[in-house]
Design brief:
The chain is built from five helices and two strands. The protein is mainly alpha-helical and 105 residues long. InterPro entries: Acnase/IPM_dHydase_lsu_aba_1/3, Acoase/IPM_deHydtase_lsu_aba, Aconitase/IPM_isomerase, Aconitase_4Fe-4S_dom.
Amino acid sequence: GNQARVADKSTVVSTSTRNFPNRLGQGANVYLASAELAAIAAIMGKLPTKDEYMSLYNSLVSKKDSTYQYLNFDKEESFTAAAKDVSIEQEVLDSAKKSYAAFIA
């Protein structure tokens, strides 16, 4: 996950949606980045220059149709099949429905 703690006083790139002092590590320098930038930084071991980024990005853009896809988990067979065996207590379902109704009201 992207919320793991890192070594104290380290410098890292994270795809987290938020950051504040000491969130990911005591005294850590955390740079928030897109998934693409984080992947390129991981490959290079540093934050890339614009030219380095564009060079690596352009080499991958031809694969974008198989890389980027909106995931509708309710339509993904592997997820719906696994969900069939999950049972949720009626009390939990009722509570969730009540909370949702209050939220949209």
